[in-house]
């Protein structure tokens, strides 16, 4: 009887320990689900239009484009023959950008020709980067149970956005090269049958076009997404004053990344069209 009672006691203790472990695991799971930190590698879907998913990054992109278009039309209406105030500042900045493009392209005519493309890329990437720093972006959303789906997300923190932008940039550079050189001359860079060496170099050049897309997209996405994660964790741990230096750092990083993206596009454009100048 004593042996049976001892075994029963051990069984009860083991059952109690297992039950206690399950309770602790259940409480830990509940605490994890209730955590206010929300970090998602991919953009969350908000709704769909005709089967096309509309994510929070697409919604933010629409607002960024609308703001840029509205600002452009408003600035155009206030243009004056004699610049004053903000127009004077804009013209000074444009002159500096043209000077920078001159150092890469070699002459002012080409700089003025390609300024709309490079300037648009720079402004679009810049405000896409900075949109994630606006109060409410990432924190205002729709709650589904314990999960909060942010209503807005910085476009540059979505790999789909950076990949699409990289594709548009690389394809645009090649189209401009075709316009400058002609399709036959431009295609000969990739498919050159004059010798085995030139053929191999052409294939490598063709592969490098895909490498540019990967480099463009992952560099921009990685820097912006990492910055948003840093700000989210810092604001959660120490919400007052401490995140401010990191906020200013992300403003600087957003500017640098947009400058790097547009300058790389300019360099690739210069390389793609340089043979046209040499021929002339």
Task: Characterise this structure.
- There is one protein chain.
- This protein has helices spanning 2-33, 56-77, 86-105, 108-130, 159-181, 183-187, 196-237, 243-279; strands at 45-49, 52-55, 141-144, 147-150.
- The chain has 280 residues and is mainly α.
- The strands form two sheets. It has a two-stranded antiparallel ribbon with strand order 1-2. A two-stranded antiparallel sheet has the order 3-4.
- The protein is built from eight helices and four strands.
- It is 73% helix and 6% strand.
- It has one domain (45-279).
- A hairpin with a 2-residue loop joins strand 1 and strand 2.
- It is globular and about 65 Å long.
- Mean pLDDT is 82; it is low at 1-34 and 276-280.
């Amino acid at each position: 009887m004593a042996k049976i009672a001892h075994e029963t006691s051990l069984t009860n203790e083991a059952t109690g320990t297992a039950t206690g472990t399950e309770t602790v695991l259940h409480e830990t799971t509940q605490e994890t689900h209730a955590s206010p930190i929300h970090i998602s590698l991919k953009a969350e879907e908000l709704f769909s239009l005709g089967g096309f998913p509309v994510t929070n990054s697409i919604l933010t992109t629409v607002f960024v484009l609308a703001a840029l278009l509205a600002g452009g039309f408003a600035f155009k209406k206030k243009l004056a023959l004699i610049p004053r105030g903000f127009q004077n500042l804009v013209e000074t900045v444009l002159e500096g950008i043209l000077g920078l493009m001159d150092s890469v392209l070699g002459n002012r005519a080409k700089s003025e020709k390609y300024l709309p493309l490079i300037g648009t890329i720079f402004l679009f990437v810049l405000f896409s980067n900075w949109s994630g720093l606006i109060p409410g972006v990432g924190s205002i959303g729709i709650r589904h149970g314990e999960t909060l789906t942010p209503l807005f997300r910085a476009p540059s923190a979505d790999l789909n956005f950076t990949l699409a932008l990289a594709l548009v940039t690389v394809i645009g550079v090649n189209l401009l090269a075709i316009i400058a050189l002609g399709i036959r001359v431009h295609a000969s860079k990739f498919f050159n049958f004059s010798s085995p060496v030139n053929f191999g170099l052409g294939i490598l050049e063709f592969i490098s076009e895909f490498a540019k897309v990967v480099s463009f997209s992952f560099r921009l996405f990685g820097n912006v997404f990492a910055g948003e994660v840093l700000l989210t964790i810092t604001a959660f741990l120490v919400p007052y004053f401490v995140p401010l230096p990191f906020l200013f750092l992300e403003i600087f990083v957003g500017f640098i990344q947009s400058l790097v993206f547009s300058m790389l596009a300019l360099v690739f454009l210069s390389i793609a069209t340089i043979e046209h100048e040499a021929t002339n």
